[in-house]
Amino acid sequence: MIDRPDVIVVARSAIAAAPIAEMQALCDALANSGVAAHTSFAFTEQGEPALRECLSERIDAGAGRIVLVPLLVPREPSFANWIAKALARWRAGDERAWPPVLLAPPPMALPGAGDLLARAVAATHDWPQPPEPVLKAEGSIVPAQKHRMLVCHGAPCTAAGAALVWGHLRNEQARQSLRTVGEGMMSAKSTCLGPCSLAPVVQVWPAGTTYGGVDEAGIDAIIRDHILSGQVAEAYAYPADGRKQRLRKGSA
Ligand code: FES
Known about the structure:
This protein is 33% helix and 16% strand. It is α/β, with parallel strands linked by helices. The strands form 2 sheets. The chain has a 5-stranded mixed sheet, covered by helices on one side. A hairpin with a 3-residue loop joins strand 7 and strand 8 (209-211). It is globular and about 55 Å long. The protein contains 7 helices and 9 strands. Residues 152, 154-157, 192-196, 199, 201 line the site of FE2/S2 (inorganic) cluster.
């Protein structure tokens, strides 16, 4: 049936086996409903597959139409905008012909969501007894990694797609073992870092280098040049020179 779309159920983040199994179970349930030609799941932040990878796989598979179903509750007001911008950027850098990619409304905004929540209430069991807390007598090691990469999640950076930047960084950090390679790197989300006009903004410490207009290619450049080679990734860097700056042309 060619009129059924390929459906990608989109969630924010998952790295443990249990939530990934939960996503697979949701996809299986959707597949059983018969509305989709193919079902899969993807993440906008940390977790594999990333949305871009999942889309690429469905395009390679010859999908005639792709529908994204966002499971982000509550959905950020800017979500549809930054997803649309990311899709446009990914499509512009891809030589393949893309099928239409559509965004479904959030399921919890649809009629019937109240019934679903009511069924959850009716199915509630007693809360399981939490285990006794185990105090770790051995303590913790203070991290020795030299570099800290901060990914701004203030409102302007979030609206510019910081979630995708963060997700790509975390996935690359895991793939390239960046915590232990070279001088080591850790990462964290931050509140506003200051230069909102340069969103999405990333800073790398201890150098304190500010990068702006960062997309997936920007993260790749910062990892390659700054983290692994100790050089500033010039194409994305903005100097702390005390003057107002705007994104250069060609930035994300
Ligand atoms: S919100 Fe990111 S720099 Fe202000």
